[in-house]
Amino acid sequence: MATPGPVTPEVPFEPSQPPVIEGFSPSVYGNPESFKEKFLRKTRENPMVPIGCLGTAAALTYGLYCFHRGHSQRSQLMMRTRIAAQGFTVAAILLGLAASALKSRP
Predict the structure, then answer these.
(1) pTM value?
(2) Where is the HIG1 domain (predicted)?
(3) What burial letters (b/e) apply to 32-51, b meaning 16+ CB within 10 Å?
């Protein structure tokens, strides 16, 4: 049986510091961002998502207004428009995810 070699002491554990893991950064940003800062950053990264959300909300609101007023044909049109706006928003999210995945590749 081989005898183990001398054990070299490692750097002592420092509980106030996060552990160092090669290739991993605990935070990409030096300071934590507020909700407003994060919202503005995400909107700049993919501006089509908020536009699609606003379009969906506008079509829904106007469609419900028309339904309440008794304009059933206009209400149906607005509900179909809402579905199209939702589809646009989902497509914008997926395209944004694909673009950010391609951008992060080396």
Answers:
(1) 0.64
(2) 20-106
(3) eeeeeeeeeeeeeebeebee
- Nearest residue to 97 (alpha-carbon basis) of 48, 51, 29, 34: 48
Task: Using DSSP, state whether 1 is helix, strand or coil.
Answer: coil
pLDDT at 101: 84
- pLDDT, tens digit, 9 for 90 and up, residues 6-21: 665 566 667 777 667 7
User: Cβ neighbours of residue 33 under 8 Å, at least 6 residues apart?
Assistant: 41
Look up residue 42 and give its two tokens: 């995400």
Check: CB of residue 94 under 8 Å from CB of residue 49: no
- pLDDT category at 71 given cuts 50, 70, 90 is very high
Give Cα separations from 3 to 8, 9, 26 (angstroms): 15, 18, 39
